[in-house]
Amino acid sequence: MGVIREQIDTVFRRDPAARSVLEIILCYPGFHAILLHRVAHRLYKKGWFTLARVISQISRAATGIEIHPGATIGRRCFIDHGMGVVIGETSEIGDDVLMYQSVTLGGTGKDTGKRHPTIGNGVVIGTGAKILGNIRVGDYVKVGAGSVVVHSVPDHSTVVGVPGRVVGEEDATEPLEHGKLPDPEGQAISELANRVAQLESMVRALLAEKMTDEKIPSKR
């Protein structure tokens, strides 16, 4: 019961839309998926692999969230909405992690053994983000929506883009505000456009100077 109580408290803390314990128990697929994974993971660790997979598949059908029973998930993890989330077998997730729908913690398709990511404590993973391969995402990292992360990320960083780029350090106590995340691609395009405008201005000035010189008759 302690695990269930802690998970309910986590939902209340993470989701302002949660209004009652009964609503969480009946209507939160992320809550169901985490609790069913706890059961499946224990069976998996004891060698009951097929039964563990059956439970994980039942959870997948009921919640839309696919968590391999071999994955290790820390305390107070919350999957918000959750549809389309996929967590691979050798994934390791720390405490107090928040992830949104369509997140993938996957492999690259060519590795064996430890082939899925390790996620630190306090990490926030935005909608549709993909974290792939045997990499480590450090503590209190924020991963922007739609990012594709294929390299390790240091603690207290924000990573955005495809492929994911570290764009700065963040206050771990602040929420992930997608509308305020840096846009490195957009910034690069803006800088390029400014540079092109400067070059065009220089070319026009040179052409104007040349035309002026041609209009002045040469002295003999």
Short description:
This protein has helices spanning 2-14, 21-27, 29-45, 49-63, 184-215; strands spanning 66-67, 72-73, 78-79, 86-87, 92-93, 98-99, 104-106, 118-119, 124-125, 130-132, 136-137, 142-143, 148-149, 157-160, 165-169. The chain has 220 residues and is an alpha/beta fold. A hairpin with a 4-residue loop joins strand 14 (157-160) and strand 15 (165-169).
Structure notes:
With 220 residues, the chain is an alpha/beta fold. The protein contains 5 helices and 15 strands. The protein has 2 domains: 181 residues, Hexapeptide repeat proteins (UDP N-Acetylglucosamine Acyltransferase, domain 1, 3 Solenoid); 38 residues. Helix content is 38%, strand content 17%. The strands form 3 sheets. Strands 3-6-9-12-14-15 form a 6-stranded mixed beta sheet. It is elongated, with a radius of gyration of 25 Å. The N and C termini lie far apart (104 Å).
